[in-house]
């Protein structure tokens, strides 16, 4: 089944060129189907690239998904045309009265700032608090995962001197969990961040369960014990060239970055990257949508205030 997107969204033409089925709002209006309603709070600078990455993963499911795009503020962006933001993005005031099946909060290039120093931190907290009563399941990615763990559970991260960048081996440490159904015992995932959560502190928290971790990159997948909040410390949505683009961008900026680990052939940045996380990324999002959204959400989303389906997982 397709992902339903706004008419003329640039990501649609990109996905169609990859033979990924997306459906315009106009066409979807003629179908008598209750789609999953997923909200994406996009905090990344290049909004169009991140939209495309996430829609590519969301399309790999038999469910029809209705997407709303949310921005955290309406200021000018250096990396995304204002016309695009005004046309396709909503402000929180426009959607806060609504309920959603799922919410995805993306990463953000804010890894070296304390959360309280982020200019829109109060808005982030407001959206997270709202999500706990208006969304069936929330997926936090990378920076957002750290932000969610800090705001909801008071867990602090450690800011590192060197960026954790590369594709790392991970171990599945919980076998019989719906989110990891179909996962290999060992799988790969990309990371790109300046901060780290303490794995033992996460494991000790009575509200959380660590599902997967890496010896090199630390905790990767953590879920709240009520199954409502999913924290993914890396970037399963990245395309093959994303880490390469970040590496050369940082080189040009004079940051002197380390070559992303286990990424380029022979660890040589003049050679092609190796993409070996796509199967895991697609399975992770499909399992989340199936087991933590679709199978738990009520048909009428207005019922969210009366029932708590995430406690039945």
Automatic annotation (TrEMBL):
Site feature (Important for substrate specificity) residues: 192
EC number: 2.3.1.46
A GO molecular-function annotation: homoserine O-succinyltransferase activity
Positions with a binding annotation for substrate: 163, 192, 249
Name of the top EC class for this enzyme: transferase
Swiss-Prot/TrEMBL catalytic activity: L-homoserine + succinyl-CoA = O-succinyl-L-homoserine + CoA
Residue positions of the active site: 142 (acyl-thioester intermediate), 235 (proton acceptor), 237
Keyword vocabulary terms for this entry: Acyltransferase, Amino-acid biosynthesis, Cytoplasm, Methionine biosynthesis, Transferase
Compartments where located: Cytoplasm
Site (Important for acyl-CoA specificity): residue numbering on this chain: 111
Annotated metabolic or biological route of this protein: Amino-acid biosynthesis; L-methionine biosynthesis via de novo pathway; O-succinyl-L-homoserine from L-homoserine: step 1/1
Purpose of the protein: Transfers a succinyl group from succinyl-CoA to L-homoserine, forming succinyl-L-homoserine.
Family (UniProt): Belongs to the MetA family.
PANTHER family: HOMOSERINE O-SUCCINYLTRANSFERASE
Protein name in the entry: Homoserine O-succinyltransferase
């Amino acid at each position: 089944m397709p992902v339903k997107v706004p008419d003329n969204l640039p990501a649609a033409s990109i996905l169609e060129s990859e033979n990924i089925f997306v459906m315009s709002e106009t066409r979807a209006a003629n179908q008598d189907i209750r789609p999953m309603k997923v909200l994406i709070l996009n905090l990344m600078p290049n909004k169009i690239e991140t939209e495309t990455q996430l829609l590519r993963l969301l399309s790999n499911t038999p469910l029809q998904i209705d997407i709303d795009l949310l921005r955290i503020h309406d200021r000018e962006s250096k990396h995304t045309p204002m016309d695009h933001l005004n046309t396709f993005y909503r402000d929180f005031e426009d959607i806060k009265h609504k309920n959603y099946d799922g919410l995805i909060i993306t990463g953000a290039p804010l890894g070296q700032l304390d959360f309280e120093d982020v200019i829109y931190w109060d808005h982030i907290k407001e959206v997270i608090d709202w999500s706990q009563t208006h969304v069936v399941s929330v997926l936090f990615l990378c920076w957002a995962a750290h932000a969610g763990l800090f705001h909801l559970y008071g867990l602090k991260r450690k800011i590192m001197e060197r960026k954790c960048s590369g594709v790392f081996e991970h171990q599945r440490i919980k076998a019989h969990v719906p989110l990891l159904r179909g996962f290999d015992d060992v799988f790969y995932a990309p990371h790109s961040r300046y901060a780290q959560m303490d794995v033992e502190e996460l494991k000790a928290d009575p509200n959380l369960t660590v599902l997967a971790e890496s010896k090199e990159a630390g905790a990767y997948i953590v879920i709240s014990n009520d199954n409502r909040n999913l924290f993914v410390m890396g970037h399963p949505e990245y395309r093959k060239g994303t880490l390469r683009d970040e590496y050369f961008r940082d080189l040009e900026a004079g940051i002197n970055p380390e070559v992303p680990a286990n990424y380029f052939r022979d660890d040589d940045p003049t050679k092609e990257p190796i993409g070996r996380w796509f199967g895991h990324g697609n399975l992770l999002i499909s399992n989340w949508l199936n087991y933590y959204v679709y199978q738990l959400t009520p048909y009428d989303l207005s019922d969210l205030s009366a029932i708590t389906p995430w406690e039945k997982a």
